[in-house]
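Look at a sample.

——
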Amino acid sequence: MRSLLLALPFALLPGFVQAAEHHNHDHDHSHGSLDAHEHGAAELDAALDGAMLEVELRSPAMNLVGFEHAPRSEADKGKIANARKQLEQPDRLLGLTAAAGCTLAKTELESPLFEGDHQHEHEHEHEEDHDGQHSEIHAHYHFECATPQALTGLDLQGLFKTFPGTEKIQAQLIGPNGQRGAQLSAKQPRAEF
């Protein structure tokens, strides 16, 4: 299933290449997985295969904690801890249909901001010497759904409310009806499988 999620961006790539050609952004894109590290923008991939639902969210840290540098204060550490706590509760963020009976089986959160303080300080001392590097947060969720046919889509209204720095999400979904792409926002937070 994870390989399916990894293949999803490549399956939908031709449609997004044309959109990317019109994207004007001056950041160095050689760091991280987001094609264009754009504050306010994130990416979400979701695949429903039988009873398994895999969801992966990739976002600049700026969208979720308000900064991308190593924590410089207790307030910064608190923002990171709060974001992590919220990301560990994906049911509230993803708006899964209750009738589908999806239970979270596994969560993986990755970011330089989540690493141990000692290693983290060293990495960011190095990063601060190189302007243009960006911290990202990746969240991967694995759900088991008792009634997967009741799951018709995702409603990211909770994610937009919890993380108001996220203005738009490029969503790519694979489900029983094939693959779909959608650009989501607080005004249009729902993506269908």
Notes: The first helix runs from residue 2 to 11. Strands lie at 41-49, 52-60, 102-110, 136-145, 153-155, 168-175, 178-185, 190-192.
